[in-house]
Amino acid sequence: MQCRLEFLYFCAHPTFFKHPMQRYLIVFLLFMCFLPGLFAIGDYKPGDTLYVWSYSGLILRNRPNLNAARIKNVPYGTFLVALNYNGSKNTEVDLISAFSKDNKQLPSVVIKGDFARVVFQGDTGYVYDGYLSRMPALKQSKINTNKQPVFEAFETYANRSFGLLKDQKSSPKAEYGKPFTRKRIYANGITVDEYSEKGGETRLILPDVSLEECLMLFKYLTGCTWDLPEKARKTEDSWTMNKVSDYEYHFSQGNGDYTVRYIPEMKVSFFTLYFEE
User: How far apart (Å, rounded) are the C-alpha atoms in residues 168 and 160?
Assistant: First the structure.
C-alpha cells in the first residue's frame, strides 16, 4: 500500500507533467508487469452503500438480467445498500453510443457489470451494477439551452463529498504565460494536479476507482454523452474518439484532449485533460 501511494504522489508531482516520455514509460511498464482484472465498480459486499450514476435512473427488476420484468425506476443519485456480493461482470451496456465521423463508424464505449440485489422503497430486486459506484453522484447544476443536463464542477463535488485535505499552489492565481501548478488532495485519496502556462494539463488520480467509474466522470463532466455524436458531424468543435486498449480511451474536442486510463492491478484510474492555447 505504501509503495502504491508513493507511486501515485510521484505521478502527481508537478515536474512529472514536464516529462511525458517518462510518464508513458512508467505506465507502459506497469501494464506489462501486472495482470488485468477489470470490474465495473470493483468488489462490493452485503452492506455496502452504492450510488446510482445512470442519469435516466436504473430499472429495479425481479430477476438479475436485462430482460427481467420491471418493478420500478431507481432515480439518479439514489443510494442503495447491496444485499449480495458482486457477480461475474458478463453483462455489457453502452455508456457512449457508437457514432459516425468522416464516413467512419466509431465504436461504442462499453461498460461491463452484473446485478446487485437491493431494496428500494420496500421492494427487493436487482439493478445493473455497471452504473453503481461507492462515490456519491455528481449534482446537476442546470439544464442548458439544448435541454441537456449540466453538472457541478469536480472541485465543488469533491470538496462536498470527500473533504479537502491539502491545497498547494505555486502562486496565488494562474496567469497566462507564467508557469502555475496546483495540487489538491482529498480525504479519500483522490489527487488533482494542475499545470498551466499558455496551455496546460489537469490530471485526476483516482485510487480504488474503476475504469467504468472514471468514464462516467468523464461523461458527466464533459457532456460527451449528449453532444459527442452531434458535434462529431461538425467541422468546428469536432469530437473524436480512440480506444487505445481495454484500459485506455482518448477523446478530443477543439483544443482539448482527454485521456481516461486504468491500471488494473493497482486499481487506480487517471482522467487527464490536456489543453492548448
Answer: 18
- The residue assigned the cell 470538496 is 159
pLDDT in tens, 201-240: 999 999 999 888 999 899 888 877 555 545 444 545 567 8
**All cell numbers assigned to 82:** 447491496
Residues 95, 214: Cα–Cα separation, whole Å: 12
What are 158-163's contacts with CB under 8 Å, separation 24+? 158/184, 158/186, 158/190, 158/192, 159/186, 161/135, 161/136, 162/186, 162/187, 162/188, 162/190, 163/187
Ordered by start, the domain boundaries in the chain are 2-275
Q: 4-13, 106-115, 165-174, 258-267: which has the minimum mean pLDDT?
A: 4-13
Rounded CA separation 80/64 (Å): 16
SS (H, E, C) 205-262: EEECCCHHHHHHHHHHHHCHHHHHHHHHCCCCCCEEEEEEECCEEEEEECCEEEEEEE
Nearest to 92 by CA among 78, 116, 108: 108
The number of beta carbons lying within 10 Å of the beta carbon of residue 205 is 21
Task: Name beta bridge partners: 184.
Answer: 167, 192
Helices (H), the chain: 2-12, 20-33, 154-161, 211-222, 224-232
Q: Name the β-bridge partners of 120.
A: 123
CA atoms of 18 and 21, how far apart (whole Å) = 9
172-200: per-residue pLDDT in tens? 888 888 899 999 999 999 999 999 988 89
- Residue 79 · residue 137 · CB < 8 Å: no
